Amino acid sequence: MASADGRLNFNLLDEDAAPQDECGVFGVWAPGEEVAKLAYYGLYALQHRGQESAGIAASDGESIRVYKDIGLVSQVFDESTLTALRGHIAVGHCRYSTTGSNQWSNAQPTLGDTPHGTVALGHNGNLTNSGDLYDRLVERNGGEAPAFGELAQGNTTDTALVTALLKDQPGEDLEAQAMQLLPTLQGAFCFVFMTENTLYAARDAQGVRPLVLGRLDRGWVVASEQSALATVGASVIREIEPGEFIAIDADGVRSQHFAASDPARCVFEYVYLARPDALINGRSVYESRVEMGRQLAREDSHDADIVIPVPESGTPAAVGYSEESGLPFAQGFIKNSYVGRTFIQPSQTLRQLGIRLKLNVQDHVVRDKRVVVVDDSIVRGNTQRAIVRMLREAGAAEVHVKISSPPIKWPCFYGIDFATRAELIATGATMDEIRQAVSADSLAYISEEGMIAATEQPPSTLCTACFSGQYPIPLPPESRRGKLLLEDPAVGGSAPSEAAGSSGSGCEPGPDAEFDVADEIPTEAPR
Predict the structure, then answer these.
(1) What does this protein do (predicted)?
(2) CATH says 23-262+505-514 is which class?
(3) Could you tell me the pLDDT band of residue 22, with boundaries at 50, 70 and 90?
(4) Does 94 participate in catalysis according to the annotation?
């Protein structure tokens, strides 16, 4: 990206660096522990999964208190807030919006009443039958829009739908209600929720998103990734299985299945989404990424002087590429580790100066060198174009771009906020056209077969929809899908108010933050 005077403008504030993440969930049952602080540190370890809002609910056995707001985990919570969230159970959530705008009312956990207690619920994933679920609520309400719960207060997420449906789901207790409701939900979901005395977790039958169970000395933890367990000192017990529902209380852990396991784990968790120290289905994410780099070098080696990564996500693959090709590994970019998500936009003057908040080139490393630069993916191409230009301005003789995933040609409906298909640079473009668009001397992607092999997972157990267009979970008609479906008046929702804010607008919290889709997607893609 360049400013009007031609100077480089590479600030990444448009979040084009990579596909946006989804959400991170964390739950803890631990009498005698400061559970809100455990949740805080667990969410801190999961911050890479969502940077728009964060929230924690805690129960002392009598009532549930929730605090949530727009911003990073470290921006939302302070010592006094966490101290006020007393109890022995907590549920935490960090969000990147995949259903509903980035507005305060959509922050999680959501809160709702049921005949068996209050529920606070956090969700990682994306339901594909939200329209049908909303219609079910309307039918139960005599044809009127829901007049209760967070849906009536402006929440437009599928998480609020689930919380509302639990309210009048038949069942003698909440476990029975959940076992009736969960089989009717379609799409990707990892739920962590609680009542005043019990912690619950559930994972969809395809296991699209990761969810793990851990043990504390005096309790239990569930979280999106092992990193959160390690951060709070919990040992890993196992992954929660696809189609499994668990409950944790004073009697221990109870498990039952609401659906037969039919794995379709997201391959992009291995490529980019999960932290490198995660294990998914027994396979190290870091080792998978290193092997992707090795395989990329086997498929397309290039005569060059050095290999450099786009930090941090491209680093393991660059290590693997260097090992396999024999080219020296170098740190051509330096990343500012203290730059998080920001709503402060640079002034026009700063833009014209080419402000570089996140990455700077080490000129002495790349000058007069033929450079192989490794990254995990290309979305719209803006970031790669800027990176190539930065390297050329720093004196690189040649720039060869290598990508450790195949071309992204299809949006995700299972919990990742990709660009629309029309915005994806690989849609309808040849390899040489993409190379020209990013101004590289050469461009290569890993093959889909090579990427899958690096994960050491059976191909039939992985979702590759964003690369192949083959969606393992059926999609609804185009008019019944999309991030803002529940804000569509035709469905029954409404657009977010100006006061509430929307994505990228610098949202303001509500008056009191504390409480007691895409074009050209086939309706049924080939399997």
Answers:
(1) Catalyzes the formation of phosphoribosylamine from phosphoribosylpyrophosphate (PRPP) and glutamine.
(2) alpha beta
(3) low
(4) no
